[in-house]
Amino acid sequence: MFRKILIANRGEIAVRVIRACKQIGIPTAAIFSEADQNSLHVKLADQAICIGPPPSIKSYLNVHNIISAALISGADAIHPGYGFLSENPQFAEICGSHHLTFIGPSPEAMSQLGDKAKAREIAHKAGVPIIPGTPVVENIEQALKEAKKIEFPVIIKAAAGGGGKGMRVCFSLKELEKNLPLAQGEAEAAFGDSRVYLEKYLIHPRHIEVQILGDQFGNVIALGERECSLQRKHQKVMEESPSAVINPSTREKIQKMAVRMAQAVHYSGAGTVEFLMEPNGNFYMIEVNARIQVEHPVTEIVTGIDLVIEQISAASGEKLIYKQDQVVIQGHAIECRINAEDSRTFAPSAGTIEKLHWAGGPGIRVDSHLRAGDMIPPFYDSMIGKLIAYGRNRQEALNRLTAALDETEIAGVKTNLAFQRELTRLPAVQKAEIHVTFIEELLKEK
Ligand code: ADP
Q: Based on the domain organization, do 216 and 317 belong to the same domain?
């Protein structure tokens, strides 16, 4: 096992990883930017090192400073959390060349999956269904020709894409002609890579993803699915496990596809294979996220498996201790992302937390770094915590979640609590009649 783990992240996920390390007795080193000096992760870690000024590019993305901090701290492994450098194969490689174990899959697997066009190719070869679409399109003539074949509407996606950024839906040749250079420009600006490809744009699909765990010996298991159809701007808002619309035989089918995909790239550690499911029940893989995800707690709750601890074990070279038939899904869990943003306009809100009360009681889990008196800096993601409810069935989980949202009080910054309270009460959400544009359509009606 590792001597010490440096956590190359901030916020709730840094706290989550430190808690896991404490549980298994591994000392931790935190890193922080000048804006996060007083953050909870800094206080909880055994040691903390400042790695630069507030902007991410100078701190949480500053590879040189992070590697130096790891070496100074005496750490022998780095946990990247999610976002920042978590899916950057160059960073994983640099860790390796400094004898630091990167807690994640191999750099090779990461680079194959990080390129979404390449991941589609791998899926296709492995017999995992993908949405009709194209390889990387080189020019407008090729894009127009291909779009005619797959038929409109189509979606332009960045090969290096992530975080819902850089996607554009086109309903006609004219729109495609206009949007292609814009999407390429956006992709270049956001990811330093202008390559884009096309996919058929599905109407009202559901987002269903499978959590997988692999080790370095080729073993991969699936831990059921999460449904993340409640999204705004392609960003998840509420997630649950299991999905209300997946029966055991469908679960077995998509789990098999997910495992096949992971094995095709010799995946080790925790990962997620994302699918879209059409209203007629057809499944297509859209991408693989090679890291721990924000919504991992719902899977932990219904399987009883600690994904962060399993990630650490896999990276240290241990064999998976679970076999597929030992994974049992019990009950239902739902997570709400709590963001410091206006409930109506969704504009981010920075400031000082004046008052804070998180709900508690049976079946409630809160993953957050927030304390009363904390400053929320304007430099980073607006998520300030996750409220997660467990129930013996979906209705019980939803009832507990609704009550917990009502009970939670955050003052000093604007939050999306009011929006989440409204969402959990909607009849369509209660009945799980949801799809990926449900929230956008709801907001348009208002
Ligand atoms: P990112 O990597 O930026 O998160 P994804 O490929 O995972 O992008 O897609 C994010 C979301 O965008 C999906 O959950 C879905 O809501 C929407 N989306 C992506 N591809 C399609 C598609 N072909 N048709 C309809 N919606 C899509």
A: yes
Residues with CB under 6 A from ligand 1: 131, 155, 161-165, 199, 201-202, 205, 207, 231, 234, 274, 276, 286-287, 436
Place of tokens 């981010």: 348
Residues 6+ positions from 101 with CB-CB distance below 8 Å? 2, 76, 77, 78, 95, 315, 316
The pLDDT tens digits of the residues spanning 214-250 come to 999 999 999 999 999 999 999 999 999 999 999 999 9
Q: Which of 66, 88, 103 is the last residue of a domain?
A: 103
Its domain, for residue 319, covers: 206-445
Count of domains forming the chain = 3
Question: Does any domain span residue 111?
Answer: no
Using only C-alpha atoms, the chain has a radius of gyration, in whole angstroms, of 21
pLDDT in tens, 49-102: 999 999 999 999 999 999 999 999 999 999 999 999 999 999 999 999 999 999
Residue nearest to atom 6 of ligand 1 (CA): 286
- Following DSSP, what letter does each residue of 336-387 receive, concatenated? EEEESB-TTT--B--EE--EEE---STTEEEEE---TT-EE-TTS--EEEEE
* CATH code of the domain containing 272: 3.30.470.20
For residue range 333-357, what is the model confidence (pLDDT) as tens digits? 999 999 999 999 999 999 999 999 9
**Do 165 and 215 share a structural domain?**
no
On whether both 421 and 372 belong to a single domain, the answer is yes
Choose which residue among 167, 230, 235, 435 to substitute to test ligand 1 binding: the one with the highest number of ligand atoms within 8 A of its C-beta: 167
Atom 22 of ligand 1: nearest residue by CA position: 201
Q: Within 10 A of 365 (CB to CB), how many other CB atoms are there?
A: 17
Which of 151, 210, 231, 276 has the most ligand 1 atoms within 8 A of CB, as the residue to mutate? Answer: 276
* Residues 427 and 361 reside in one and the same domain: yes
**How many helical (H) and strand (E) elements, i.e. helices and strands, does the chain have?**
15, 21
Q: Are residues 185 and 260 in the same domain?
A: no
Residue minimizing CA distance to atom 21 of ligand 1: 201
Of 184, 200, 216, which marks where a domain is finished?
A: 200
CA 158 to centroid of ligand 1, rounded, Å: 11
User: Is 114 among the domain residues?
Assistant: no
Catalytic (active site) residue 291: yes
Co-location of 96 and 189 in the same domain = no
Q: How far is the CA of 232 from the centre of ligand 1 (A)?
A: 11
CA 202 to chain centre: 21
- Domain membership flag for residue 236: yes
